Amino acid sequence: MILLALLLGCASGGDDDSRGEEDTGDAVPSVRQPGHYFPDAAPWYTSVAEADTDADSDTLIAALQDAGRGMGTDRLQLDWSLEVLAADDTTPRLEFTPTDDFYTPDCDAVPMPVPDGGNVEGEPDYACTSGGDCHLLVAAEDEGKLYEMWRADLRGDTFRGGCLAVWTMDEVYPADGRGDQCSSADAAGYPIAPMLFTADEVAAGEIAHALRFALPNTSIRDGEYFHPATHATNADGGGADTLPYGARLRLRADFDMERITDPDARVVVTALQTYGMFLADGGNIPLMARSDRRTTAKWDQLFEDGSHALFGIEPQDFEVLALEGDAVPLTFDCARNGH
Predict the structure, then answer these.
(1) Does any domain span residue 335?
(2) Contact residues for 36 (Cβ-Cβ < 8 A; gap 6+)
(3) What's the pLDDT at 233?
(4) Which of 111, 117, 119, 216 is the most buried (most CB within 10 A)?
């Protein structure tokens, strides 16, 4: 039941810069307060500036510092290829043919809203031609639902899709999310959209939510996870000294802000100190933002060093917050809890 891309170590992110797409003028609006797709009590919006660190934080951070890949020394690179589209009651809902990347009962076999003029991750439209993750993320305000699909591919009248997770946006989910052992469009079983920061948030000077990050599979713990994650990997991963899904990292309060001279990049630094970041997926570019295709501000007008704006921040600048509860052994036996 594991996401195939993670088994192969080729989940979203590569070693090249992933710059925002040129503004196409597509009439697909953004929705809600930036980054706020759930009530404020959801974990993505909880300040952790004063939260306790985990007893094993030093060991976990030391191992990550030594790994030297992905979030290795001086490589806190940014990816902004993901997009969140907006749907309303006029948006077509399309049936799709599940692929081998659709798992039962983890995933939801319901029609997907497909806004006109939209696109999947890393593509100019809805055709997944690159072999990438091709996430399709759509917030349907009329339903109060967030639709997140992995490996979406729509070409003409042929719509094929991997795992689709449908989230209720007015609900604070329990610790086990949509159900223990259940995947989503993300390896950890999380929603994706709430943790993507935008160019407009950076331009406004505040990111008021946790961020989403990825690591190479070899730096992610095999065989177990901690809530609020509900899923994990079990191939090519690491041992007890690696980070598990469910880990939330916080940039140290004593981080020397003078090391980051770009004022826009400092907005991200402040968010990492206040809300931290959740380990959510496997990949080689750690920190993930939204594309600027449909934002007023543009990434190339903000960060002086583009996707390298946070280079120089190292794993040893972070600490691991106390892991929630006991480790959940990975079985892949998804038990949906009614969500």
Answers:
(1) no
(2) 45, 194, 208, 209
(3) 86
(4) 119
